[in-house]
Amino acid sequence: MAARVRRLCRFPVKGLNEQTLEAVTLAAGAGLPEDRRFALVYGLTTGARRGFFDLVQEEKLAQLTMDYDAAAPLLTIHRQGRQVVSANPCDQTGRMLLNQFFAGFFAGSPRGTPAFQELTGSSHEEAVPDSVSIINLASVRDFERVARTTVDPRRFRGNIVIDDLPAWEEFTWPGRDLSVGSARLRVTRRSDRCAATNVNPDTAARDMNIPLTLRKGFGHMDMGVYAEVTQGGTIALGDELAPGKLSESGPAGRDLPFS
Questions:
Q1: Phi and psi at residue 70, in whole multiples of 5°?
Q2: How far is CA 195 from the centre of its chain?
Q3: Over 60: is that where the pLDDT of 127 sits?
Q4: On the chain, which terminus has fewer CB atoms closer than 10 Å, C or N?
């Protein structure tokens, strides 16, 4: 049975929740449109090394949910079901409102006061590589068998979530081309998992140690693969995903995940 796309997600704000899609049109050399377009940045005024607020260090981000209307544009943040801020993330007034909220939300953080920013050019490349994250639900289920508990696939923050494929078969794909919808992708590497996956997306609690469980149970800390878009096209839910032959460049190595 061929693998099929069961879920499509983008993460407009790095570290916040996903936005699910029915279909998405990809461009060669880029990730999903609007994926990690915005981020909360620290170290801009303190002289410390620049970085991003994410679930690795700030699990309380999972207390928030966001809705994003790219056409408006409008970003709306909720906490425990209550709207706390709604603003245009692309203009000065909107960013001021978002900065005011996040300054209070992260008051006392050792990383200082966050700056809500739109990421472009090198700043976007620093936050996230131009790649697409693919998660195999069969691999997640096999991990559940070892972990002896249910594991929400959202912990792995995949852009394309697939099923109807043997567990871990995606680890044979680095260096291979994929055909999905009218797009073509080339798998570049396995995804090495970090502490961000330990955060429960519903409760914001660090209630698992997923990297450690992966290492003890499987001898690695990987879940999913990354791919680059080599030919633009549209992908929709239910589309078949078919791997091709190993490319002439051969398989690539591993790289760090993004959250």
A1: -70, -25
A2: 14
A3: no
A4: N
Q: Are 111 and 40 in contact (CB under 8 A)?
A: no
The alpha carbon of residue 126 and the mean position of all alpha carbons in its chain are separated, in whole angstroms, by: 14
Q: What is the CATH number of domain 3-33+129-246?
A: 2.40.33.20
Q: What residue has token string 């394309």? A: 160
* Digit-coded pLDDT (tens) for 18-65: 999 999 999 999 999 999 999 999 976 555 567 899 999 999 999 999
Alpha-carbon gap, residue 130 to 174, rounded angstroms = 16
Q: Taking a C-beta distance cutoff of 8 angstroms, is the pair 30, 39 a contact?
A: no
Rounded to a whole number of angstroms, the distance between the first and last alpha carbons of the chain is: 31
Closest among 153, 89, 137 to 115, alpha carbons compared = 89
HEC sequence for 108-162: CCCCCCCEEEECCHHHHHHHCCCCEEEEEHHHHHHHHHHHCCCCCHHHHCCCEEE
Instruction: Encode 103-132: b = buried (16+ Cβ within 10 Å), e = exposed.
Output: eebbeebebbbbbbbebeeeebeebbbebb
What residue segments make up the domains of the chain, in order of their start?
Answer: 3-33+129-246, 38-127
* AA letter at 137: L
pLDDT tens by residue, 108-118: 998 889 999 99
